[in-house]
Specification:
This is DUF3905 domain-containing protein. Pfam families: DUF3905. It is a single chain. This protein is mostly loops and 147 residues long. It folds into two domains: 82 residues, no CATH class; 58 residues, no CATH class. The chain is built from three helices and two strands, in the order H-E-E-H-H. It has a two-stranded antiparallel sheet with strand order 1-2. The longest helix has 9 residues.
Amino acid sequence: MSDKDLDPFEIEFLPEFRKGRGPEEPFVNEYGVTIGDHDYRSENSPLENWTAGTDPSVMAGDEWVHPFKDIGFHTAENRDYFERGIPPRGGITMHPTIDTAYDYALGQAGDEGHEERSTGMDGSPNASGEREAGADAGAGDRGRERP
């Protein structure tokens, strides 16, 4: 498939990311809203029927995101990952106390030049049992990229 054949919000997924991902065509979710057709106004959408009593969580979950046609796929990080197989670089948007890439890092421990350690700032030990530099840093230091 070439870029000109793609839907405007679709990217050229590597084969390993196409398998088991879900429907490629637009689908209707449990609220009767068609997802993946780029018509963002739907009479059944909670957005069109919002009241003070509407619970925002009704619009959370996979049923509101198309597995192939989503504007979020066009970020540089997502294109690198889904089209080129380049995993996201750590330290870009980090949780202040939880390293969500820790399991991935452990799997890469055999790679040359890779240190097996947690990058969490919560003071928990890293894989070698040592506390990281900066683990006692104040909240104002959390925005910097960790070594």
